[in-house]
Amino acid sequence: MVKVGLVQMSCVKEPALNLEKAITKVREAAAKGAQIVCLQELFTSLYFCDVEDYENFKLAEPIPGPSTDALQKVAAELGVVIIASLFEKRTQGLYHNTTAVIDADGAYLGKYRKMHIPDDPAYYEKFYFTPGDLGYKTFKTKFATIGVLICWDQWYPEAARITSLMGAEILFYPTAIGWATSQDEATNAEQYNAWQTIQRSHAVANGVPVVSVNRVGFEQDGLMKFWGGSFVSNPFGSLLYKASHEEEEVAVVDIDMAKSDSYRTHWPFLRDRRIDSYQPITKRFIDED
Q1: Are 146 and 36 in contact (CB under 8 A)?
Q2: DSSP symbols for 129-159
Q3: CA separation (Å) from 213 to 94, 182, 184, 186, 263?
Q4: Which domains are delineated in the chain?
């Protein structure tokens, strides 16, 4: 069994306050028995990608850097793995949406850079982030070999498949997604259900648990409500936990790691893959000759 901690929280403008709050909640998760704690996407700031503003580049930092230094001390003190999504300044004029993984002894294990970068109203991420160039990654932590993908990556089965094939035993998705407050409830429900369903399908297709951690609360002067709804799915898509759409939550969920072998044996999707037939997937679109 692995105990996974999810930190769903709201954020404020001052990065130092958000980092302090996140550390407090990591401590709360550890006190509840968490062994691996996942923080939400870009947890040290408000979701700044709602506008294209050059001032926001000042929020970025190197990785490793100040935030990872602080979290490494906490991880070592508490004996927990921490998954930390940060705005990375790689060099002058080159920035990434990046998640660092810190092991239970405080060691920095490495980072994953977000591969799929959206560009939609109120989600202008292409203005800020260069697409990841490290490929898909797994990290051998004290408690499990984990894969980390980030937010928009959630919609792509290829990302989940490749990370699972690399040996990930759990897929983690730090996320920042919400509803425009101008939307009707039917649209809100449809969007959340699609978001949850696609990730649960990754669990089923790959036979691994999925942990998705989203932010919550109103931002963008009340125009955006981040929908929370963080959840854990078992390897066959059943929900083990779902957070509210309204409140901050720190949850600890037991994941039975033996379930993956059981589901993969009885539903052998990996066995029956026709890898000889998948070459067309590398095309943008399959046009008729």
Answers
A1: yes
A2: -PPP-S-S-EEE-SS-EEEE--GGGGG-HHH
A3: 26, 24, 24, 23, 24
A4: 2-282 (3.60.110.10)
Among 111, 114, 137, 225, the active-site one is 114
Query: Does the annotation mark 13 as catalytic?
Result: no
Q: Is 114 a catalytic residue?
A: yes
Name 88's bridge partners: 61, 96
In this prediction, residue 289 carries a pLDDT of 66
Which secondary-structure segment (H or E) carries 110? strand 108-113
- Residue type present at position 199: Q
Is 137 in the active site? no
Vertex 104 angle, CA 100 and 107, to 5°: 55
List the catalytic residue out of 11, 38, 49, 151.
Answer: 151
Find out whether 15 and 46 touch, Cβ atoms under 8 Å. Answer: no
pTM: 0.96
Burial class (CB in 10 A: 0-12, 13-18, 19+), 191: middle
Question: What are the tokens at 145?
Answer: 């070999």
Catalytic residue among 21, 41, 89, 225: 41
Give residues with Cβ within 8 angstroms of 259, minimum separation 6: 209, 234, 235, 236
Spatial CA neighbour of 129 closest among 117, 111, 112: 117
Which residues of the chain, if any, have pLDDT below 70? Answer: 289
Q: What is the DSSP letter of 180?
A: E
The answer to whether 207 and 260 are in contact (CB under 8 A) is yes
CA dihedral 52, 57, 58, 61 (to 10 degrees): 150
